[in-house]
Amino acid sequence: MKIDQRMPVWAAKNIYGNRDTKNVVIHLHPVGRALLAKKLRFLLGPFIIYLIEKKSLGGNNLSTEELIEIHEIEKIDFPEPPNVLIGVPDVGLVGIISASHLVTIFEDLREYAHVESSLFPPVVVVHKGKPSPPIRIYASTKDTPLLLIVSEIPIPPDSIHELSEALVNWLEQKNPNYIISLGGVGVPNRLEIEKPLVFAIGSNEKAESIINEKKIEIFEEGMIIGPYAALMHCFQKRDMINIALLAQSHMKYPDPGAAASILEAVGTILDVEIDIDALLQRAEEIRLRTRDLMRDTGRTMDQMQKEREYQVPAFYG
Q1: Could you give the strand order of the β-sheet that contains 198-202, starting from the edge strand earlier in sequence?
Q2: Across 227-286, where does the E strand assignment appear?
């Protein structure tokens, strides 16, 4: 690939001196595009930034499936369309706390697949002496089939769109029923709230009708930023049923109480009983165990300007 013609001569010479730039070849790895753009932002201006951000993926001809791989450990034939729950580190760690509790109480949930990518940091989590990838997918075929997607690391902002596309592509093949995102919405007065309320956002009319039927309060105005926003957008494009549940939560403090409210809403939507007593009894232990993950997640949320969720959108009508 020759150097992009939109790069001005002065920029090319800053990099290559007085050499002939006609045959210069740029080799860019997708993982480094954001870092390179940040380092060169003030030196080379918008032209090289455009080249790095737009050409690094296309220039290497890497598809979403090549960037993000989902490895199935075993073959499972679901007797009927599975429901899907997604829990990733976000506001108050509501998603990961909820997902972890489900794995604990539903013994039939077993590890089914995991997600790998060079876009993620090199991390292995160890539970009971067994190393595992940090982003895993659990499955159950008992009664109503269920898929549970859980991440034990904050999703790097530069990989959110690729991961969302990969997960939605994979889920589409499973012909899912309901897809429920488990999240929180930060509220300044959380300490004054005894039982957090849960709000819902639907990806299409079918999702909205389910929310209304189950009498869950609609999230009327605001913003969501991060993995759940990217997933919602992908599900909307495919006209898949995605319900994002958002419980009132501490922004940067692990919130088992908000997770309990989310699981009650999940039980309402799926018509299943979910025991939350153990979750509430272990609330202080959970806060202590997850404080390091909350700290790391807080840094990631800062990169995404998560505090903008407090803002009301400017458009009205």
Answers
A1: 69-72, 110-116, 135-140, 146-151, 83-87, 179-186, 242-249, 198-202, 217-218
A2: 242-249
Q: How would you class 191 by CB atoms within 10 Å of its CB: exposed for 0-12, middle for 13-18, buried for 19 or more?
A: exposed
CA atoms within 13 A on the CB side of 53: 15
What does DSSP assign to residue 35? H
Tokens linked to 264:
């009650």
Percent of the chain with pLDDT over 70: 77
| Contact indicator for 156, 67 with CB cutoff of 8 Å | no
Instruction: Judge whether 52 and 40 are in contact, CB under 8 Å.
Output: yes
Helix (H, G, I), strand (E, B) or coil at 100: helix
Find where tokens 């407090």 sit: 310
* Domains of the chain, each with CATH number or no CATH: 9-62 (no CATH), 66-310 (3.40.50.10900)
> How far, in Å, CA of 235 to CA of 249, rounded?
25
Judged by phi (left if over 0) then psi (alpha if -120 to 50, else beta), residue 282 lies in alpha
pTM of the complete model: 0.79
Question: Beta 135-140 vs 179-186: how paired, if at all?
Answer: unpaired
Read off the pLDDT band of 51 (50, 70, 90).
very low
- Whether the CB-CB separation of 25 and 1 falls below 8 Å is answered with yes
Of 138, 145, 142, 137, the closest CA to residue 81 belongs to 145
Element (H, E) at 267: helix 256-270
